[in-house]
Design brief:
The strands form two sheets. Strands 3-4-2-5-1-6-7 form a seven-stranded mixed beta sheet, with helices on both faces. The chain starts with a helix and ends with a helix. The chain is an alpha/beta fold. Strand 11, helix 7 and strand 12 form a beta-alpha-beta unit. It is globular, with a radius of gyration of 19 Å. The protein has two domains: 170 residues, Rossmann fold, CATH 3.40.50; 84 residues, Rossmann fold (3-Layer(aba) Sandwich), CATH 3.40.50. 34% of the residues are buried.
Length: 264
């Protein structure tokens, strides 16, 4: 990974690019952080790989006005952005360079890249969410994909200092069964209300209506408690849903750092 980092020369695409990521495998809250940041800007594009989607190549999930495809083509995280950042252009692509050019062509003035620290061939401002672990080794000995290289500039963001999480349970019922397919679901524990059961699925799992109906029946629950990442995949099933809606409140100095980068 170090040789890969040293061998790359960052391309200046002539547009402000902000990358939000973390160095470890698994979830750390990138999606709500990108959403909170992107909501502040106009003519904004959000670009991500679209991990877990049932498609390949470049797709414009949402232009600046409307959603253009379903969650199967976009993947769950891209569809979250399409719903929660109504002013944004959302593009999924394995090739970030192509997506950046497409976003510029469509009129974007600032781009947020979801999980792109390792894309060292792109000139950008890197924001990294701090993830604490007892094992700080890189794969395969530990959970970290890459180091924060000493010669690479990045802003490290810490929960409780640079941002805080705010959770609201919408459409709450008396008896709820938690159903979720997110990485490291233990992150939800401190925000959970009382639930009948906790049902954890593999990250990015695409649910079937039958498996969710079986959980409702088994627990005799009034509703399924889901995160927004799950909600965008199951809302069409017509099942009773409660939403564990997570948002991030970001400190002003983070926006100041982004704005100072844009002025350079």
């Amino acid at each position: 990974m170090y040789l890969r980092f040293k061998s790359k020369k960052a391309i200046d695409f002539g547009i402000d690019i902000i990358s939000v990521g973390n160095l470890s495998v698994g979830g750390s809250g990138k999606t709500p952080l990108v959403s909170a940041l992107a909501l502040r800007y106009e003519n904004v594009a959000i670009i991500l790989r679209g991990y877990g989607r049932k498609s390949k190549g470049l797709y414009v999930v949402k232009d600046f006005k409307e959603i253009l495809c379903d969650v199967n083509l976009s993947g769950d995280e891209a569809m979250i952005y399409a719903h929660k950042v109504p002013n944004a252009l959302v593009i999924v692509s394995e090739d970030r360079n192509k997506a950046i050019l497409k976003a510029k062509e469509m009129g974007a003035k600032i781009i947020f890249l979801d999980d792109a620290y390792s894309k060292h061939g792109i000139k950008k401002l890197d924001l990294l969410i701090e993830v604490k672990s007892k094992n700080m080794s890189c794969l395969p000995a530990g959970a970290f994909r890459e180091r924060l290289w000493g010669t690479k500039e990045a802003l490290l963001l810490r929960e409780g200092i640079d941002f805080k999480r705010v959770v609201d349970v919408k459409n709450k019922s008396d008896k709820m069964s938690l159903v979720t397919a997110i990485a490291r679901p233990s992150r939800l524990e401190r925000f959970l209300p009382l639930v009948v059961s906790k049902n954890y699925f593999e990250d990015h799992h695409f649910f079937t209506q039958e498996e969710l109906q079986n959980i409702l029946k088994k627990d005799s629950s009034d509703s399924l408690l889901v995160t927004y990442k799950d909600f965008v995949k199951v809302e069409s099933f017509g099942l009773p849903l409660s939403l564990l809606d997570l948002e991030l409140q970001v400190q002003e100095h983070v926006f100041e750092r982004i704005n100072n980068y844009r002025m350079k």
